[in-house]
Design goal:
Blueprint lengths: L7 H12 L3 H13 L15 H10 L6 E7 L4 E6 L5 E8 L4 E4 L3 E3 L8 H5 L1 E4 L2 H13 L6 E6 L9 H12 L11 E5 L3 H10 L5 E5 L5 H7 L8 H9 L9 E7 L7 H11 L4 E7 L13 H13 L4 E3 L7 H5 L15
The protein binds S-adenosyl-L-homocysteine (SAH) and iron/sulfur cluster.
The site of S-adenosyl-L-homocysteine has 19 residues, from β8, β10 and α12.
């Protein structure tokens, strides 16, 4: 019983089938493990009169979130590397906000989509993370790093969440389960390169849906195809159709991530195309200055350019935020993962 892959309901079903027990004991197990980080479930009051049962259940439970291999504290953020059972390493980032912390998790070891500006993409793909390995990043942050203020989860670490949709959906169910980690879906964001049928799967399997962030980076098909090869398969029109069907809550919007790259997607015309693309949606646009890395020969825009580009959008009443300082902010912190990662390049699906 890999307990980090079990919702409260699944734990109840398991107890019912194997031990003829139910919700009462499941509540004790979930509380000890997910809320207290205590694997000794016999300490739960529900097992006060059934220590033998507790011992039997405990022998069935396994927890393998991976071990924290390294912790790096940067200006505002803490990045930690988890070593998985097979020796692969994945990165997660803790970003403190005003009153709470956002945890940025990885969904794959590497990524196979090869966006030309992205460090993770450059290093290639090793494998999907299991649900346990995804949920394990939160478990470790809460109980190994003892961070009790995590209220937001963003899938903006290594990998493409919608290339591992099944495990990501299961992880979201456990993270948002009130008896487990209890992080509301409205505080969970899935960032994607934009794979229409997988966005449809999110919509059909998760009700309510989590927030969606789209790495757009250009609203011109020819440019987007050059910097993000996926666009040759699923272009902007396909994306538009599926985004229109995304069931947004009244208070939320689709987050559009736009990495601004000098001379590539930062002209006035690019801004006008972006405005046109987002017109039918409720969106928040994040302008992220390209962070120079070991990838292609791309340069960051100047601060003035980022400001000017953002103003073009704001002047047309687009809700826009700009990330100005390199290395700061959520996207800058999460989008740069994978420098120490080695995988093999495979062509996109
Ligand atoms: N694969 C998903 C989830 C990873 S999120 C996705 O692409 O959305 C990683 C984010 O970091 C993406 O929004 C990506 O556009 C951004 N990013 C990648 N390389 C970057 C760079 N060099 N500078 C700034 N942002 C970058
Ligand atoms: Fe993969 Fe996202 Fe990087 Fe593209 S931007 S290579 S999809 S992690």
């Amino acid at each position: 019983m890999k307990i980090l892959e079990y919702t409260f309901e699944k734990t109840t079903e398991y107890l019912n089938k194997e031990f003829n027990k139910g919700k009462f004991h499941a509540a004790g197990i979930c509380r000890e493990i997910f809320k207290n980080g205590n694997i000794n479930i016999s300490e739960a009051k529900e097992f006060d009169n059934s220590k033998e049962l507790a011992a039997k259940v405990m022998r069935r439970i396994s927890i393998n979130p991976g071990t924290i291999h390294n912790i790096e504290c940067e200006v505002n953020t803490t990045k930690y590397i988890t070593k998985l059972n097979d020796g692969l390493k994945v990165e997660s980032v803790l970003v403190p906000m005003n009153n709470y912390t956002t945890l940025c998790v990885s969904s794959q070891a590497g990524c196979r989509f090869g966006c030309i500006f992205c460090e993770t993409g450059k290093k290639g793909f090793s494998r999907n993370l299991s649900t346990e390995e995804i949920v394990g990043q939160l478990y470790n942050a809460r109980f190994m790093l003892k961070n009790s203020s995590i209220k937001n989860i963003v899938f903006m670490g290594m990998g493409e969440p919608l290339d591992n949709t099944e495990n990501v959906i299961k992880a979201v169910k456990i993270i948002s389960d009130q008896r487990c980690f209890n992080i509301a879906r409205k505080n969970i964001t899935i960032s994607t390169i934009g794979i229409p049928d997988q966005i449809e799967k999110l919509i059909s399997d998760l009700n309510p849906v989590p927030n969606l962030a789209l790495s757009l980076n250009s609203a011109v098909n020819s440019i987007r195809s050059k910097i993000m090869p996926i666009n040759k398969k699923h272009d902007l029109n396909d994306l538009k159709t599926v985004l229109l069907s995304y069931p947004l809550r009244s208070s939320s919007a689709i987050l559009i991530e736009y990495v601004l790259m000098s001379g590539i997607n930062d002209s006035y015309d690019d801004a006008m195309e972006l405005i046109e693309f987002v017109k039918p949606f409720k969106v928040r646009v994040n302008i992220i200055p390209y962070n120079e890395n070991s990838c292609a020969n791309i340069s960051s825009p100047s601060y003035d350019k980022v400001k000017e580009f953002s103003k073009w959008l704001a002047d047309e009443s687009v809700f826009v935020r700009m990330r100005t300082r390199k290395g700061s902010g959520l996207m800058a912190a999460c989008g740069q993962l994978g420098k120490n990662f080695k995988g093999s390049r495979q062509p996109p699906a």
